[in-house]
């Protein structure tokens, strides 16, 4: 389970670089080729210049990012429901993109995994994905090694503070740095990962961590133009499962973010014992009011599941 962000602030993470490149020739495939749910409405589009990023939300914690021409699939759940192997405890179904399948994915340059639990490292999705793309480069937390090792042959495991370079099929490059996320177990266990992704050429930098749990002392050395984070808290009795609201504001301030892209990773059609005791705190409207008051120059861009949300470097320069 996730610890509060304050519990991570005393940890320090040295920075090391790992090399991870993909040089095979292949035709770049844009995320705009995704099949779209008929229930989806248009997302806001900031610009259409070449130095933009496109973020396509696939619900829960799943994304496709096109960052400077590098296509990254993040924490995919594309086969069946989210049930942690125990549907009697929790069984969550997507609300909009239930028909979106692995075969609907664009050509990928990388699979990015933040955490080792099923809502991020979804074995029912990763097993067929590995058969379809056996040589797909993977960047992940070492906590997920026991799941990923039998499936993928090209995996780079990053501890918080480590970096790696990734080259897309079209020759574009990004740098990916792991940051400290929640601790899902005893306090001495390695934290899970967040990530800061920066294109090699001038362009937008992006920060992502799906629980809004972060190490302040680590992040104070970094900046990110775009922050993807939950903004609505998810609570179990006596325990914060996913943070948000004021913690998301603090995160955006810390990284000097210009855009906040909110996740709705608790917005599922759910049943089971756990769903009956889960509760939410805060609303999108309350967060937007807080953002306007605390960081008036930042913009909130809400993604629509299945449609690319495009953000341009030129719009913030």
From TrEMBL:
InterPro entries found in the cross-reference section: RibonucZ/Hydroxyglut_hydro
Highest taxon of source: Eukaryota
Pfam families associated with the record: Lactamase_B_3
The protein, known as: Metallo-beta-lactamase domain-containing protein
Species the sequence originates in: Rhynchospora tenuis
